[in-house]
Amino acid sequence: MRTEIERHILVKDSQGVAVVDTLPEPCRACEMAHTGVVEVTRSCGLPGKRRRGSQSSSHGSVFFCTNDPDLIESSRLFKRELAGC
Ligand SMILES: [Zn+2]
Question: For the chain, which residues make up each domain, given as ranges?
Fold first, then answer.
């Protein structure tokens, strides 16, 4: 059975207010636990292998966690997606 691709995104503005929030409940701890580096992890609240990372600027911050196999495979692709969030 094919796993459905999930893309979890949390965008905050410069005040720390969430403007886009598609994180399911189990991924909240993931967002709290991650250290800012782009990494492959199995410690998301959701089962399986995922890639997560974040980036921030003066405009705010973006956190992105996904089980998309292409993005787990390639941190370059992941970072490109992250930049486009
Ligand atoms: Zn997660």
Answer: 7-84
